[in-house]
Design a protein that fits this description.
about 20% strand, 8-stranded mixed sheet, alpha/beta, Aminopeptidase, disordered C terminus, Glucose Oxidase, domain 1, about 525 residues, about 25% helix
Amino acid sequence: MTLLLFCSCSSSDSDPVVINPEDGIEHAMTAEALTGHLQELEKGAVSGNRAAGTQGYDNSVRYIRSLLADSSLLLWEQEVNFRFFEENREPVLHQLFPRPADYAAGMDFSTMTYSGSGDVTGELAFVTPMIPPGADPNSSDDACESADFDGIDLNGKIAVIQRGGCSYEEKAQNARSRGAAAVLIFNEGQTGRTETVRGTLGEEAGISIPVLGISYALGREFYDLAQDGNVSVGLITDSMDENRNALNLFAETSGGNSSQVIMAGAHLDSVSAGPGINDNGSGAAALMELAYQVAALDYQPQNKIRFAWWAAKEAGNAGSLYYTQNLSDADYYSIAMYLDADSIASPNYVFAVLDSDLSDTAAPEDIFLDPDFMPAGSGEIEAAFTDYFASFGIRPKISGLHAETDYNAFVNIGIPVGGLSAGEDGIKSEEEAGIFGGNAGEPYDPCYHQFCDDTANINEDALLRNAKALTHVVQHFADQETLFGDTGTPVRRFADRTPQLAAKNAPGYDRSHSDRHVRSAR
């Protein structure tokens, strides 16, 4: 075996170290190189963000192109048109009667993506909330059916509606059609569903009235006050909603079996609220360094490797959806798998591996989470990640798939997926703190989708370990002549997809996620 001399920090002045690709490209990954990429992404942020369709995002694309420009990798771009949403100023919500109070944007309430703009003052009107909440998520189906509004006067009022049962869009549309001047949607109230709702309405909903997500505590406060009489509030939203373009960026090895492409991706865009250095500069940086090392070490894979940096994930997975929906038949059948890295450096981290075959997290009542629909090879991908962590004595969290992340675009066309996260907007449990350390009862990422998601919001140990795990699994599959053992080539199962599954991937469907930039959510 030929040993290659190479500086493992990609752009630092460290002494060269001996790296042998056959012993694992992961050994070339360093925290110094990864954090260097994150610093460059943060420098490129404009007006504090790298949202798709902005100069900050274009600067991120430009940085990756410059990093890989002189490499042996083939680089290309794909233009994506998507619907851009941004608030022109911070929203306002205050109680006027009976207890005047001002509420904090981002903490107590948040504007829903694709909400209308407006300055509204009015009386609150509840529909059919379940208070106290049911034991299970989505026990409530508040404002989902026409009959829920029988005998309720919403004309000119501000509807207050509980999360659960149907999409935010349906709830808001139902209230608007009955004369509501604005809508407040409060979280349902179970463990893990108490924080401020940060959701999105369907891209084509055309809801012209303001729609805010609020916390369960604030919704309960309004509800309790309403039991004793009228409650009135004032609110202001001011946003921009328009079509824009952004680029997906790809890099690919020149060699390797082109009929078994190992594809790894990460979304490159941030939300408009901040620079998005953990979400998802961290995943994008791991991919950058992996691509850089593959080229610099002159690694010759058995199977072709393709890297993808997605545009507009925070605007409904627009980049990955556009890519998968526009694949030629030949390209479609050539992709053996898709591996995703998203928010892999959370400060209060867990090591989370996607439950690729849904053997651990499937919910039988949910068509989207149905193991029968998972592409062949999914279990082998999950095992490759878990085996890597196990080799270091780490038992990773097995994380359920959700429909608002880029891997969903591949699952839906029958391509097996896998991936990593360090935790996003959830709360660390006591059990997780016992396994991974950190603070139970606190967010994995306290700066999730906020202005403080900068380079100070990174756990370098989590970043490096996850980057090495991604590198290991990419190389593991890139070196195999035959993928998935006896499983063979994955069967693409379009015919088996049910109408219900198709409906669940339409704009506006409830995705059970609290992120305001999710395509939609309960």
